[in-house]
# Entry
Amino acid sequence: MIVRYNEDDLSIHDEWVFNGADIDGAKIIWARELDKAQNEKLFAYFKDHKVWLATTEDGHLVFGPYQQLADTP
# Structure
């Protein structure tokens, strides 16, 4: 699950990314969205997992298939 924080949603009290100690054995892995190259390394390492996005739209939590932002390097 890739987490995309939006500028207006950032709060030091609202961290969404938590993983257990056995990250390789986890069914769901949470990660912050990084640049394209770093995301691709993560996706390659966890190639057997589907990649989903968690973000907000109009103040509501939204989940869906991951799509890279057009302006993400």
Q: What stands out?
A: The longest strand covers residues 52-57.
